Amino acid sequence: MDLQEQLRWTQSADAWSRWAEQVADPAIRINMPLLDLAAAAPGARVLDVAAGVGEPSLSQAERLGGNGLIVACDLVPDMLRTLRARAAGRTSAAPVPVAADMTALPFPDRSFDHVLCRFGLMFVPDVPAALREMHRVLRPGGNAALAVWGNRAENSLFDQLDQCLDTVLGPDPASLLPPLFRFADPAPLLPAARQAGFAAAEYRTLRLRTMADGTRPFWRATLDMAFTPRLAGADTMATARLHDHIASHYRALADAQHRVEVRSAVHLLCFQA
């Protein structure tokens, strides 16, 4: 990960910590299909790469029920501190947090049965190196299960919030949003995975639709977590104008029951070692 992305996620860590529990339930709709794809059995050794504040590590730990090992690695130590706090007191065995760059994993060859990576690969400058490392630490017959965002138009919350930010704060000089949709077309990842040593690679697209309560700021978590560096330069008055503009935007989109459609598209990929 380059220094710009590392700074971005370090700046965002506090926001992810604040919202981690509130967004856990909606995230299940992505976490569960991803874990189904990995299909880790009791006793499995699982590595979660770019684990952030704990997903899907914590969900995988609950599935294994203490029968197995979950290692959660992330480049940003502040993210892992939140993971530790969230894991404390849970009945399942806590994931083991390790600060690590996914292009240079500090684990021996063939250490794990499964590798998970949810919304991390898009931010890595050297994708082939990351894929090679995933393959290296997997045992023969293991797999890597990854999630990347689909195209921007099908991820309405990101798209619309970015437009609202442009309207109120002006265009984004740092271009924070484009990296999220780097693999809107995931097809190039399939030959890249094979070149990294994987025997087989495939993907499917998960499309989700939620009707959010338009009378509440359902958009706030995504705004704070995804756009933290951009919001950092806004003063109190500008932030208030932005919130008012976003609320007005969604009131205009709401149906007669004050519901707002939120659409998401996620590519789920499975690479067989």
Question: If you had to describe this structure to a student in words, what would you say it looks like?
Answer:
- The longest helix is centred in the last third of the chain and has 18 residues, at 236-253.
- This protein is of the alpha/beta class and 273 residues long.
- It has a 7-stranded mixed sheet with strand order 3-2-1-4-5-7-6, with helices on both faces.
- The radius of gyration is 19 Å and the shape is globular.
- It has 10 helices and 7 strands.
- The chain has a single domain (3-272), classed as Vaccinia Virus protein VP39 (Rossmann fold, 3-Layer(aba) Sandwich), CATH 3.40.50.
Number of E-type strands: 7
- Order of adjacent strands in the largest pleated sheet: 3-2-1-4-5-7-6
What is the architecture at the second tier of CATH?
A: 3-Layer(aba) Sandwich
What ranges have pLDDT less than 50 throughout 5 or more consecutive residues? Answer: none
Mass-distribution shape: globular
- Calculate the terminal CA-CA distance, rounded to whole Å: 24 Å
User: In angstroms, what is the radius of gyration?
Assistant: 19 Å
Binned strand content: 15-25%
**What is the share of helical residues?**
40-55%
Would you give the CATH topology? Answer: Rossmann fold
Query: What count of helical segments does DSSP give?
Result: 10
For this structure, what is the CATH homologous superfamily? Vaccinia Virus protein VP39
CATH class: Alpha Beta
Q: What is shown here, in short?
A:
This protein is 41% helix and 23% strand. Helix 5 links the parallel strand 4 and strand 5.
